[in-house]
Amino acid sequence: MARTRPVVTEMDRERLQRLIDAGGSRHDKARLIELQEELDSADTVPTGSVQSDVVRIGSRVGVRDVDTGAPIAFTIVLPGDADATAHRISVLAPVGTALLGYAVGDVVEWSVPGGRRHLRIETVQSQPGTVAAAADGSRRVA
Question: Could you tell me the CATH number of the domain that includes residue 87?
């Protein structure tokens, strides 16, 4: 499935741009470049108007591996809050960057050392600053 344009809130864009501008560690440089590319391709919406099914910082996300059928659930967080044992994944992790700004039903794809991974977003728990999906089922401008 072709990826649609991601949606990012003004607040998340500001937080992520500060993270990128800070530069991080040498290890983070490539990830920060990828995050900047994702931000550059994203549509920005006012924080209070983002649909509740869009993955944001702080979202609890349920996905299914398209290739294996395995379900996975985690929360997307800023790097300082990441904790793999608590299923809190950094927005700088490949899966975190890939999912940010996409919505329930979208399939995201990214490269891993063994090839390509595909995850279908199945659930996104609502967080402050969201609105319910429009009655007509539309989520965002693609």
Answer: 3.10.50.30
